Amino acid sequence: MRSLILLGSTGSIGTQCLDVLRAHPGQFQLNGLAAGSSWREAVDQVREFDCPALALADRDAATLAREALPESVRLFEGPQAAADMAGALDYDLALNGVVGAAGLQPSVRVLERGCDLALANKESLVIAGQLLMDLALANKSRILPVDSEHSALQQCLHGEQVGRVRYLYLTASGGALRDLTLEELHEVTPEVALAHPTWTMGPRITIGSATLMNKALEVIEAAHLYGVGAERIRVVIHRQSIVHSMVEYVDGSVISQLGPPDMRGPIHHALFYPDRIASDLKGYVPELFQNLTFEEPDPERFPALELGYRCVREGGNAGAVLNAADEVAVAAFLDGQLPFHELVPVVSAVLDRRHEWPGSTLAELLEADRGARKAAKEEIMRLVPTGATD
Ligand SMILES: NC(=O)c1ccc[n+]([C@@H]2O[C@H](COP(=O)([O-])OP(=O)(O)OC[C@H]3O[C@@H](n4cnc5c(N)ncnc54)[C@H](OP(=O)(O)O)[C@@H]3O)[C@@H](O)[C@H]2O)c1
Question: How many helices (H) and strands (E) are present in the chain, helices listed first?
């Protein structure tokens, strides 16, 4: 039996990971769970999985959880709780399903411990990809992608040399707004942007699917995971979300990984890697597979995508700045304080200021994250004077 900690256990990825564990009793011992503030749900999870430790970022939530938990359960609390827990417990594998930059420090801790990291939190690689890849190498840890596209790429690259790759193709559904004109994008409300056509996910990634900023983050993620330059990564709109990504080799062969859109697939793959364990997840479903379409993304309607390529080319703190600005812009959009069509301009304007926070050590990247958040709020104020201030 392998031991596991699950970070972001109350979210979309976290709860689907628990579904996979329920389907495979006796395969994993859950040694720790971490969440932000959803203490009731987290306490229920601790009880169900007889888990000896819980981390909650929100201190008030932790106080309430303490009262509800058996005394034997070790509680970590505060903004660093998930990272503290990842640094303190014994485990073989951590699945990181925390959303946003909050996932970075836990990822660092897992790799420093020499444990394997099943990574859904793409922000970790977007902010500090080089640093994490170096840490994994130095500590003989594996980073196992949970993002469906990168899980697909890993499966398509299995046993092959990256030097023989012509292109990595990341597929994108195009999100909820893929058929709207530029003018129509001006009228989009959070409710409309959150109605994803094929996937059910947390709000940040769902808005990122509508702007294609999520795909921009995935371009950066792929560049780090597989060590390829921007010129060898392509994005293709694939509405059905059945082909999860493709690798084109120098001999013209294209290898892809397919399956119905269900995140339990890549979670299952990462948890049991390198083995393949039987599951009841669906494979070929004729009615889902009968019409598979592929289109070029429109750079005018999806300007976010180019920002991802720019970050790969520029390296350094670019990913950290991009991610932080997008987190702030998405929060402002969801609060009704920023129009949809201003999301990418805000991020782009902050990226133009990245020289203000130089360096690429962990401390410097965290400084860039803080600086870019402040700059994003300034940009929002400039664009929409009645917008977010804190
Ligand atoms: N959802 C998907 O299908 C999908 C697919 C591919 C990749 N991903 C990636 O997976 C990550 C998670 O996405 P999601 O959709 O599952 O997000 P989500 O539903 O919003 O869940 C986020 C999780 O992170 C927890 N959290 C937030 N702040 C935290 C902190 N400071 N410390 C510890 N935990 C914290 C939340 O706890 P609370 O509930 O207490 O707030 C929740 O458990 C993202 O990086 C996303 O890009 C998701």
Answer: 17, 11
For 116, 231, 237, the CA distances from 188, given in Å and listed in that order, are 41, 32, 21
Closest CA to 208 of 221, 198, 217, 219: 217
pLDDT in tens, 360-386: 999 999 999 999 999 999 999 998 876
Residue 303 CB–ligand 1 contact under 6 Å: no
For the stretch 223-268, pLDDT in tens is: 999 999 999 999 999 999 999 999 999 999 999 999 999 999 999 9
DSSP 328-373: HHHHHHHTTSS-GGGHHHHHHHHHTTGGGS---SHHHHHHHHHHHH
In the reported structure, the alpha carbon of residue 120 is separated from the centroid of ligand 1 by a whole-number distance in angstroms of 8
Nearest atom, ligand 1, residue 8 CA = 43
Taking CA atoms, 300 is separated from 39, 186, 217, 344, in Å, by 43, 14, 18, 12
Residue 294 C-alpha from the chain's centroid: 23
Q: Indicate which residue's Cα is closest to atom 15 of ligand 1.
A: 202
Q: Does ligand 1 lie within 6 Å of residue 14's CB atom?
A: yes
Q: Which CATH superfamily does the domain covering 2-145 fall into? A: NAD(P)-binding Rossmann-like Domain (3.40.50.720)
